């Protein structure tokens, strides 16, 4: 039983952490960011480098998130800003950036970085042993969701951000600096992606193409979740994580992947606007 | 008049060596992944070919002709292999192609080589069974790697074996070989799991292994995503002895991951850079001189290097002809051998595969390597014994233990 809960929590945490940055950028702002994986990779690389210089892991992850956030702000100003009403062009532009960054990293930094070891050791419960760090990741996923909820609902910035994204003209006419809000919101999404990279860096191979291992899960979770981060991404992560863990325990990894994707197809078919679309419409 | 004649004769005498130096180069096509998921293990292969070509050209080329490399980056993508194989054979008209890392890529390009009547070398260890006259395979095969590794591990650690393998032709067929060899040696398979390429999260796999309590874990993981398994298993304190025919020797996990994640891993490989033999050390030294930033020289890199020399030998013994049938006639004599960094290797005429020295490498707690056992001159006997004889017939097919050549 503990075994299954661990797998479920682990799968859900992976989905939520992969998706939270994209949920802000794609879910809230409507920007289809195909460079999401590269933000994750960048965060992981910065975390690994800072950690190797001797910093403790939480500080290193913070540096990774910060670096990704800053790059996100720059990217938003240079590229994304001009493409807000052109979604197809955003896809092409961000895909191009993704290729440039991943291949550029390969050319400049070589095929891999020396990996980090996973901290916090292991714990044995019953006849199985578990990595403590993975329990920590589950806690971090919940904390990030709680933090985002607090940010967007209880701070002034959060109110301004939600207003700008829902009705930009009204916000502008009330004196909100919408361009700054867009930049900052994109930056927060990028920083979350960087944090995910940093959090998973001690558990994975650090290679330039590592973003590709998150991107499918990120997009399906955001699409199933719908536009809202808390009413959408969180339940989507939990539901899809449950399906994946169930199928993997029953028949192995291949079944888990297939189960995840079949669940996505079913949800989209029944609820085209995702889980949050269902909840919000019911409220209205 | 006499002066004119003498000057003409002198001009012709001078022109002849010029014509010889401007001789047609021999073109060697190189289709290897220099980007994408497999690049880590295959960049070294291109370097091996470049090193060999440089040495051969400095010593006068192949039968007096310089060796020219036509290199394409196949990006770890099977469709690129097909595209560039057509281009190399039809537009560039190369004389031979050295191509492929993953077995999926090899099976993608093999029909094209046959269709365009080409000649290709596959310089990678794999799941065995390719019986095709258009292919020379210098990589190690299961009867060389598993028939040595598994009996040794069962005797040392116990009879219960669990396999985790990448879910494509290589992983599935290798797992079949493991099943057969385990049974032949009195062992018991307690579990098998096939993992899609690109999966990097292994919590459930690790739990399944813990529940089955095996004595030996055979890992056949391919690609950088799947290699995250070792760190995650170590973090969950899973310490069962591991055996592999692919890991460590190809993607040097023992150098990339922190100790002790790869501790107690046993790999049968035909060569890795830690081998202490003086000839091997000399090879490593000259490689590092040309490529000082090479992270690791793996078994595929050594295979690619020696394959260029084997090709040179075949062409020179065929009196300079690069026609495939002339080269196959040389191979049929049965003594195309080369003193490689791993030891003496020979091409078997029946299967066009190569014999190998097999080193059993053990990864220690601090990730240094020791070699508990070595097997000399292990021949690729399975295809010949099963009924593949390329000196008589060319089926251009791949066979497995459950699908052997028809009698």
Secondary structure topology:
The complex is a heterodimer of chains A (284) and B (407).
Chain A: H1 2-28, H2 36-52, H3 57-78, H4 87-109, E1 122-125, E2 128-131, H5 132-154, H6 156-166, H7 168-173, H8 178-200, H9 212-225, H10 229-251, H11 253-270, H12 274-283
Antiparallel strand pairs in A: 1-2
Helix pairs in contact in A: 1-5, 1-8, 1-9, 1-10, 2-3, 2-8, 2-9, 3-8, 5-6, 6-8, 9-10, 9-11, 9-12, 10-11, 10-12
Chain B: H1 2-21, E1 26-32, H2 39-58, E2 67-73, H3 78-91, E3 96-99, H4 103-115, E4 120-122, E5 130-131, E6 135-137, H5 142-157, E7 160-166, H6 169-184, E8 188-195, H7 203-212, E9 216-220, H8 228-235, E10 242-244, H9 253-256, E11 265-269, H10 278-290, H11 299-317, H12 324-332, E12 337-340, E13 343-348, E14 353-354, E15 356-363, E16 369-378, H13 381-386, E17 397-398
Parallel strand pairs in B: 1-2, 1-3, 3-4, 4-6, 7-8, 7-9, 9-10, 10-11
Antiparallel strand pairs in B: 5-17, 11-15, 12-13, 13-14, 15-16
Helix pairs in contact in B: 2-11, 3-4, 5-6
Protein traits:
heterodimer; A: about 280 residues; ABC transporter involved in vitamin B12 uptake, BtuC; two-stranded antiparallel ribbon; B: about 400 residues; Rossmann fold; 2 domains; 7-stranded mixed beta sheet
Shape of chain B: globular
Which structural category fits the helices and strands of chain A?
A: mainly alpha
Largest beta sheet of chain A: what is the strand line-up? 1-2
Number of strands of chain A: 2
Instruction: Identify the quaternary structure here.
Output: heterodimer
Radius of gyration of chain B: 23 Å
Contiguous uncertain segments of 5+ residues of chain B: 16-21
| Major β-sheet annotation of chain B | 7 strands, mixed
Backbone shape of chain A: globular
What's the CATH topology label of the largest domain in chain B?
A: Rossmann fold
Number of helices of chain B: 13
User: Order of strands in the sheet with the most strands of chain B?
Assistant: 8-7-9-10-11-15-16
User: What order do the SSEs of chain B take from the amino end to the carboxyl end, as H and E?
Assistant: HEHEHEHEEEHEHEHEHEHEHHHEEEEEHE
Terminus-to-terminus distance of chain B: 76 Å
**CATH fold description of chain A:** ABC transporter involved in vitamin B12 uptake, BtuC
Q: Provide mean pLDDT of chain A, rounded.
A: 89
Query: Low-confidence spans of chain A: pLDDT under 50, at least 5 residues?
Result: none
DSSP strand (E) fraction of chain B?
15-25%
- CATH level-two architecture of the largest domain in chain B: 3-Layer(aba) Sandwich
In angstroms, what separates the terminal alpha carbons of chain A?
Answer: 39 Å
